[in-house]
Design goal:
Elements lengths: L1 E3 L2 E3 L1 H13 L4 H7 L8 H16 L5 H8 L3 H4 L6 H11 L6 H30 L5 H19 L8 H17 L12 H7 L7 E6 L5 H14 L4 E5 L4 H13 L3 H6 L5 H16 L2 E4 L6 H14 L5 E5 L13 H19 L3 E6 L22 H5 L2 E6 L13 E9 L5 E8 L4 E4 L5 H4 L8
Helix pairs in contact: 1-3, 1-6, 1-7, 3-4, 4-6, 7-8, 11-12, 12-14, 15-16
Amino acid sequence: MRKENDLPSSIEAEKAVLGSIILEPNLWDSLSVEIDENDFIANEHKLIFRGIKKLIDLGSDLDTVTLIESLSGDSELSTLSNFDRVNYVKNLVSDTPGTANFSNYTNIIKQSSSLRKLISTAADISSLAKEADTFESDSALSEAEDKLIKLRDSIQRNSGPLLAKDLIKPVYDNIDKTMRSDGDLVGISTGFRDLDKYTMGLQEGDLFIIAGRPSMGKTAFALSIAGHLVNESIPCVLFSLEMSARSIMYRLISLLGKIELKKLFEAKNLSDSDFNEIENSLSLLSRSKFYIDDTSALSPSEILSRSRKLKRENPDLGLIIIDYMQLMRADNRNDNRVSEMSEISRSLKALAKEIDVPVIALSQLNRAPETRTGKKPVLADLKDSGAIEQDADIVTFVFRAEKYEQVPENKGLAVIDIAKHRNGPTGTVKLYFSEKYTKFEDLALDDPALKNPDFTSED
């Protein structure tokens, strides 16, 4: 490797790669996965690479004659002074030492390109720091981190198809882990007996949607799961785009200590027993690694950046919760909210896969259930995007009949409708919802509601 204009580069490796492709066009398939024209530093090499790609995309034969002819119509190439395309292409072939070290030549180009991109990003970060206001250091640091993350993402390409035999060990290890796990759980317990039976726990890389109409208890359901993780000392983060961190803490204290939420907010009529439970809850939370980020209108890239940082600090991070999707800001803003929500949905699934942590995302529903007999939600009711249904591994609907029909048999009863389950069965789970503590709980095994087939989210 040598320096070209003081930038990391290897003109010799670039020539060898292009010459190898002309000699053996079958090498193109492996090359095109690894690099593109922007990874070359020499303009003539960028244009020759583009010419080769054009011929292959058209299904034309590739050799010195067809490539020279193809390049004759390239207006950009004709602007290069003293460039003789005929002799240059012929020399690429004659000067190539062979194709045996083709992979090494390709790697040299990749590494040089990565270093040039790093130099460019470092210059951008330097300018950012110089131009930032004294009181904007946190913002500048965040933007600098985002630039580095995007650089890493652009460099770390997928290497293409994997041979089945290379996947055998991780798959076997996962099967073995499942066999050795306690009970039916593969992932982290939600804290709900029957829900765990359906899902086998919250599993790494899964996107789990909690959806429902307003006031059904979406946030309460997510916080009930989070409270279970707090009790189990499992690190967890909640991105609360709607409620303040203070309000979330009040709710957690209420559900962990079973203290009436209204009494907590009013700070009146609290008994000695209540104060003891408050202290116990605060003690539990102080020992936990439960994080709350109440920044409004976060974008997927911002959530990804913050989640990566938490994962580095807490390798055993167990869960990411986002409340809620429709309050997120798309990285690529446009006037089409459906398109934006599709981008957000895809990004959250990508987040779960990259961080290798289950992601729970809360979602609103449109008004269609209100016009339907029984008020039962369906997958098509997910607000603003059908992509949510497509990207999610599990979609659940929170439904409480007492919000529509206040009769004794409905009081406190809730249905979690598992409407989509990529790797398992769908069905309904019946829970108890406490208005006082804004908390969901398992029903007792002998509760009549568990034996009542009529208690579902339908009439």
